[in-house]
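WARN  no MSA supplied for this record, continuing single-sequence
INFO  ligand: SN-glycerol-3-phosphate
INFO  echoing inputs
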Amino acid sequence: MELPRLIAHRGLSHHAPENTLAAIRATHEAGLNWLELDVQCLGDGTPVLWHDAHVVRCSDGQGLLRDYSLAQAKRLDVGRWFDERFAGERMATLEEALALISELGLGLNLELKLSAGHDDNLLAETVVPQAVAMLPRERLLISSFSVATLSRVRELDGNCALGILYEDGPTRGWVTDAEQVEAFSIHSNWQSLDPARAEEIRDRGRRLICYTVNDPRRFHRWWSHGVDTVITDRPELFDGDDFAPSAEPADPA
Ligand code: G3P
Ligand code: MG
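INFO  complex generated
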């Protein structure tokens, strides 16, 4: 699998409402060819693009995602909170998102979003067959903070590329985790990464992906420690072949 240096976080989420079809289109229009999206299930079992357990932050609704059916979720406005230009945007099902990603020829890092009260294995069992059926293997990377959930994914599909997410940097047991799920990549919060651990990941032949990098200037030294790819809200701040910072001031991390 050929990964680019930059993956758009939640779609191009600084320029369009996160985890929507509009954010997928914006990724393509910005010239990026890979994006990260979060998926979880509604109460009726439909997988949708969504980050939070609740719907308050990114819609005009109230309450928990798991209490919504698809019909109810489709009545929410998921664009206006971001900008009036996106008023009327509707929550995207995974199927709608995969169809658009396939049509645009994009690569997808799909994060199985764990949320209290949700059945993580059921999420994997619902999402994985759909994703592998709709995208070519070289354009699909499935990731999760849960090694147990990724183990279930591996049982469901022996070949798809898997990435293990670590909140506080890869732990000492990352090698065991990676062998258990035959991980393609290790995904680390860049602010918690240790240089020796980064180089160990590189030397052991796993890809190293850092999230969420919005300050190319501060990040720059990490490329030399073996980082392959960053997930970013602000791809436009990265400039040049070596991703030296561009002239535009970076957001505070
Ligand atoms: O997959 C990287 C990143 O998306 C993980 O954090 O909270 O933005 O889903 P979060
Ligand atoms: Mg995510």
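Residues 246-250 have pLDDT under 50 and may be disordered.
INFO  checksum written, moving to next record
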